[in-house]
# Entry
Amino acid sequence: MNNSRKGLYIRKFLRILGPGLITGASDDDPSGIATYSQAGAQYGLSTLWTAWITFPLMASIQEMCARIGLTTSQGLTGILKQYYPRWVLYTMLLFSFPAIVMNICADIAGMGAVANLIVPSVNTEYFSVGFTVLLLFFIVAFPYRKIASILKYLAMVLLVYLLVPFFAKTDWLAVVKSTFVPHIQMNKDYLGILVGILGTTISPYLFFWQTTMEVEELREKQKK
# Structure
């Protein structure tokens, strides 16, 4: 295969990447990083086995939401409104809205905290407000295709995670053992960390976001 054909396949592959990649990457948010960091600081490698639960759950939920969007060309709220009683829709909004808002607030606060570490002379609150205004501007000013393209390439930065273990002193035998042999501690703190890992990995906004992005992707293709 010559270089031009390889380049064509790579460009085609990058064009295909979209909603799933962005939604999956968005799950690696500041609140998630804080939870995983706390789990690692308190219990070391002993929570690695949870990946066998969290990843299939997250992948299957994203798959279901994507199929709903592709099949119905509607978001989750539209589907609930059309096919279910109103109380089901309002109950979902009642439970989902606070969780989504708090998750977004945690993400922006985390961004502000990181920016404060880089520029300590500016308070975290100012950075958080600035990021909020900047994000709102981008959402309003740019079309979906432009935003999706930017987020898609920014998400590839997460590939750095694959390199980090090789630059640290890692006990690979302990990693393999902790991954395949669950070690569960029956105490409140450990069980709380497990709930935190499940909650931050399978965030409510992922359901709505994945479905809506699939619908937006369909509409963009129909315009062409």
Q: What stands out?
A: Residues 19-223 form one domain. The chain has a mean pLDDT of 80. The longest helix spans residues 86-118.
